[in-house]
Amino acid sequence: GSQAKYVGLEPNREDWSDQPSIIALPVPRPYSSFGQIRNYAIEQSYPDGVGAYVDWLLNESGWHVTERDAPDTPKPIEPRHICILFRRYQSFFQDVTRNYVRALEGRHVPHVLVGGRSFHEQEEIQAIRNALAAIEWPDDTLRVYATLRGPLFAFPDDLLLTFRHQNGGSLHPLREYDREAFDESTIEVADVLEMLGRLHAGRNRKAIATTLSDLLDRVRAQAGMAIGANGDQALANLFRLIERAHRFERRGASSFRSFVELLENEAESGAAEDAALIEEGTEGVRMMTTHRAKGLEFPVVILADPTCNATRAPNRYTDVEKRLWAEPLCGAAPRDLLENAELEATRDVAEAVRVAYVAATRARDLLVVPAVGDDQLEGWLDVLNPVIYPKPDKKRAGKPAPGCPEFGSDSIRMRPRSQDGKTTEAVMPGLHNPVLGAHKVVWWDPHLLELDRQPRAGLRHQKIL
């Protein structure tokens, strides 16, 4: 009665003849050290493969895409044309996007995270939290050191050790230092400690946001963050924190310390706000969840986090007519849930198919789907396996792909030693006909990806003693 009638999809534009429309991107290193395909190995390897493939698209492919407002005008691929879609942002309190961000940062690819709960894990937010804690608790030597050593001031270890040696081993912001005892380099450390002391003295006499803004203005933090590898996102996070301070005060803040403790508790518990949204038109590869991408379209879409489960054990049952919501409580499940568990499982499967459909149809010109050459992936994208994997007897029938470099013969970059010398039966890189559909799929060669690049900017990978 009230349901819309089914209308099949029809072709809207002709495919590019000199470049593929669907890419199966194999996980480069899906095997564990014990010679078995494992989810954790896939989760460690695939983000780096995505970063390397994005780098190739932008700098070597020579491919073109179109935009909705100019459908007949091909344009070279730019970072803003690419979107990486996730089913989730968090897995067991871990940020799923982190390895993808690092892979892009290591290749200096601009990117923006749309939403996400990794706010307190961002380097700039960690640096500001340390500085605020040093202002509130000047006796906390570790926080003071982290502030001086962190990205806001970036004093090297040898300079800080020299400063402590010249003044008797102190880094206390409230101490009065004999400026004549310092040379030109160490006097800057004394100036910063004096500034932290002044901010401490006035922290409860003015607005929290004013103290925060004074700190950032004196170190020109906005300019420094803007030129970083992820400047747009860093600035958005910074302004979000200032706005957070304004809102905290409007709700009746008791003290500067209460705001600092709130941030610390959020960071420890993982109950952070979403990462700040980026203004429309900002350059960079978008990263967002499939739910946020509903109604949007991107020239290039890369599907990520392939090990995320499509469904989970039924944990709720709803009945609109009875106005009933049933869910487990304290380890006990209501009878309504137990009796309708199979029905809820069927609904979850149908919802998983719809989510995968939404993700796959966000692509305008190019869709990139994760895959494993030796076996089919199980996860939220396994419904797409029949339309990207060839028939078993056609795995080794890969043909040269238009617009692609010359591929090798193996879609696994690194195999366990137990398979040395054995004939591989993995899907051969190249152009394939999948099990379902009349379309063509290009299986990429992971040996062509430049992997293991590390970010050259920031302090994230430095070991601070």
In brief:
By secondary structure, the protein is an alpha/beta fold. Helices cover 34% and strands 13% of the residues.
List the helices and strands and how they pair.
Layout: E1 22-26, H1 39-59, E2 64-67, E3 70-76, E4 82-86, E5 90-91, E6 94-95, H2 98-105, E7 111-113, H3 123-136, H4 141-149, H5 157-167, H6 186-201, H7 208-219, H8 221-226, H9 231-250, H10 256-269, E8 285-289, E9 298-303, E10 317-319, E11 324-326, H11 335-339, H12 341-360, E12 363-371, E13 430-432, E14 441-443
Helix pairs in contact: 1-2, 3-4, 3-6, 3-10, 5-6, 7-9
What does this structure look like?
By secondary structure, the protein is α/β, with parallel strands linked by helices. The strands form 4 sheets. The chain has an 8-stranded mixed β-sheet, covered by helices on one side. A two-stranded antiparallel ribbon has the order 2-3. Helix 1 packs parallel to helix 2, helix 3 crosses helix 4 and helix 7 runs antiparallel to helix 9. It starts with 21 loop residues before the first strand and ends in a 22-residue tail after the last strand.
